Amino acid sequence: MIQQVTRGIKISVKTSFQGTFLKNYQIHFAFGYQITIENQSNDSVQLNSRFWKIKDSLNKNLIVKGEGVIGKKPVLKPGESHTYTSGCQLTSPFGAMSGYYDMINFTSTRKFKVNIPSFKLSAPFALN
């Protein structure tokens, strides 16, 4: 598990390999990831949007931006957490993801970024 804390918000990431499939005559590798966002600060916060940079070992990069996470904009009071599961597809058995969440602090009304630690995606059969 990969973890990082930014401004009292702890991000924990677990990854999993989901399998391969053929799409448009090309093999694709499916990966899942579970993210827990834990508010270790003294203020209530809300996640408003996300930014992802997805890389694969073939040097293809994909940028993903959007509101919330899986259709939600969770509000976290001090000590609360939100966990969600999502995934991505790569055209190679290795890759990595990194990014950030745009959040707002309800006490100060200030917006801030919370870093999502870089994490690797790898198909277990390709590690030998």
UniProtKB/TrEMBL annotation:
Pfam families (alphabetical): DUF525
Entries under SUPFAM superfamilies matching the protein: ApaG-like
ApaG domain sequence ranges: 3-128
InterPro entries: ApaG-like, ApaG_domain, ApaG_sf
Protein name: Co2+/Mg2+ efflux protein ApaG
Species in which this protein is naturally found: Mesonia mobilis
PROSITE patterns linked to this entry: APAG
Upper lineage: Bacteria, Pseudomonadati, Bacteroidota, Flavobacteriia, Flavobacteriales
